[in-house]
Amino acid sequence: MHSETKKLELIQMILTLQDEELLAKINALLSKYVASKAQKPVRKFGFAKGLITYVAPDFDETPPGFEDYMPQA
User: Fold this and answer.
1) Most buried of 10, 45, 47, 63, CB within 10 angstroms?
2) Residue 7 burial (10 A CB sphere; 0-12, 13-18, 19+)
3) Residue 73 has pLDDT above 80, yes or no
4) Which residues neighbour 62 within 8 Å (Cβ) at sequence distance 6 or greater?
5) Could you tell me if 14 and 26 are in contact, meaning their C-beta atoms sit under 8 angstroms apart?
């Protein structure tokens, strides 16, 4: 069964649900899901400072075999 079909069936079942206790459990699950999506890790400026410790002297040079792909000067 396709996932979109499963989602629609689940929505239809929830809409017809009468059990208040079960609805409360579903609501708690949804709240946890929304809360987990809202929490993003806080990135701090400069967190990778010092991570790159070596750059080859020929870093900016064109690698051999790529001359045909470079613009003509």
Assistant:
1) 10
2) exposed
3) no
4) 70
5) yes
Domain boundaries along the sequence of the chain: 1-38
Helix-strand-coil percent breakdown of the chain, rounded to 5? 50, 0, 50
How far does CA 6 lie from the centroid of its chain?
23
Q: Measured between alpha carbons, how far is 67 from 7 in angstroms, rounded to an integer?
A: 53
Please say if the pLDDT value at position 12 is more than 70. yes
Q: Kindly list the distances between the CA atom of residue 11 and the CA atoms of 4, 8, 23, 25, in Å, as whole numbers in the listed order.
A: 11, 5, 12, 15
Q: Answer for the pair 62, 70: CB distance below 8 angstroms, yes or no.
A: yes
User: Token pair of 58, please?
Assistant: 């020929």
Q: What are phi and psi of 61, to 5 degrees?
A: -80, 155
Is the pLDDT at 47 greater than 80, yes or no?
yes
